[in-house]
Structure formats: structure tokens, C-alpha cells
Write a structure and sequence with these properties.
Layout (H helix, E strand, L loop, with lengths): L1 E3 L20 E3 L18 E4 L2 E5 L6 H16 L7 E3 L20 H23 L8 E4 L37 H4 L3 E4 L19 H8 L16 H6 L8 E5 L2 E7 L2 E8 L8 E9 L15 H18 L2 E2 L2
Parallel strand pairs: 1-2, 1-5, 9-12
Antiparallel strand pairs: 2-3, 3-4, 6-7, 8-9, 9-10, 10-11
Helix pairs in contact: 1-2
Amino acid sequence: MAIGKWHLGFQPESYLPTRRGFDDWFGLPYSHDMIPPWVKTGRPLRLYRGASEVETVSDQSQLTPRYTGEAVRFLKQAAGQPFFLYLAYSMPHLPVSAPAERRGRSRAGLYGDVIETLDWSAGEILRTLREQRLDGDTMVVFTSDNGPWHKLPPRMLAGGVEPWHTGSKGLLRGAKGSTYEGGLRVPGIVRWPGVARSGQVCMDLASTLDLFPTMARAAGVALPEGRVYDGSDLAPWLRDGVAGPRGPFYYCLGNTLEAIREGPWKYRFARARAEGDPEVRAPAPELFHLDWDPAEQYNLYSRHPDIAARLAGRLKAFAAEIGAQLAG
């Protein structure tokens, strides 16, 4: 089952989750800001069940608990059978809102209330797994799709949206829409009894691209041959704490390939724009050591030209392989 935001197409119907491998779906076909005043459209925000529109969303503050309730219902029905649940909460994407009974609890304001509602939701799902005696035989993955959405377009600063609803800048440089770490680097939490060692923390690189081969092999499914896969099985890494399986990781912004990471080294060649400055400057090479400098504050390009040249070569070769553009 899929629950929540889809945003991979809904017209024609062949794009819907139920035509893409899921038996059932309850959620929205796109972001919940796809209505006035944020988007100029006459189409109301409609929830789907399966392939059918079932109701108009009149109170977005109920989206998170509604999704959680659907997840609990599905898990109870699936007891004793193999299952896969994909749960994509609409928030904390803007605009944020929280149910009345959970407002005012966080010192971080409304955004904090939204995050604490997600924490409560995770707890409800884990509690249900325990009650259904599924928690010892279920892999649970908690992650996000991108970093905070800073430098909001003017259209988003309406309808009660405040600049601080986008989340904390924290340690990392950049945000959604950039190839600095703040745009793509997110937490990843895996609970997999009997496989993932409890309490371990790993700083090696993994990607949501790795979830497909990891889950397929955990379920005993052989991947089709004759294809190039962008992911690697994470089970040995999670089980034994060995070095992460991922090789080079490439950072794209649209059709432009802007950066490559290999181990702790990240080479970036992209058009520069200072935050809040509309002027776009010519691209300049940057080299960062992400173990020493995860905030990407210190450009080591001039100190390690050999490493930069090697990574630049790999970036150019991969751009040619996939037909991507390079900054220039």
C-alpha cells in the first residue's frame, strides 16, 4: 500500500500508484500547496483512495493523523501476511499545520508542532507493529527526500506561511534546489531486528537509491539481469558495520551534473549564487572533505589539485554516459 503524497503523475490514470505496483493507495496526487493562494488553479485538493477521488481536503491539519490512521489500519489487516507500506507524509512541506490537540506543544512553534506530530505518528506505527507481533520481523526505514526549502519564492509567502516554517539551516550549507549538502543530505534511520545492529551510528554514504535492491533481496526477490542499477544492498553494511557499499555519488540539478562525492571527498563545479543574491556567477571548482568540513565552508581545491582533477574527470565521463550537461 502507498499512503500520502505521490507527486509522480496522476493524469492519465496509468501514472497512479495502483497502476505502478501498489494494491491500494490513500493520499494526494501532488503537494498540498497545489491550491490558491500558493498555486493559481481552479482544481480543489482531492484525496484519492485507489484510483478514485473520494473527498475534498477542507482541513489540512488532519492530513498527518489521517495518514497515520490509514497506516495502522493497513498493518492490522496485513497481520500474518508479507506486506510493503510506503508512507509519504505531506508535511513538513509547506504550508505546515497541525491538529488542534497537538498545537502549542513545541517551543519551535507551528513547525515544531508538525515535527512532533510526525514523531507521535512514528510511535503509533511502531506500537501497532508490536501489538500485531510484527516488529521483530519488519524493516522500518525513516528518512526524508530533501533539505529545507529556503529562499522561498514570493508565491509561497502567503496563506499564513512564514519564512521560519521551512526548517532549520542547521550545520549544512545550502538547501533544497542546490547541490550543496543542505539540499540532498538527510537523516536515515533503519530499524531491522536481527539484521541492523541496535544503536550503531554510521557516517558512510547511503542513498534512497539503495532501498530498492536492499528490500528486494531481503524479500528473496532476484533483480532482473541485464540492467545497470544505481543502488547497492545495504544489508551487509547494516549487519556487520563494514564500509558502505556505495561508490561515487553524483549530484544533479535538473539536467545539469554539478558534483561528485567519492568517500569523504566532494568535487563541485556549478554556477554560484549567493543566498539572497539573484546574480549568477561563472562556475568555479570546489573541493570539500566532508568528514572534516560537512558544512562545506573550506574549499581545498588549490591544496589537492590531483584529487580534484581525478574527480572532475569522473564527473565529465559520467555526464557523457547519461547525456547530462555540465556547468559552463
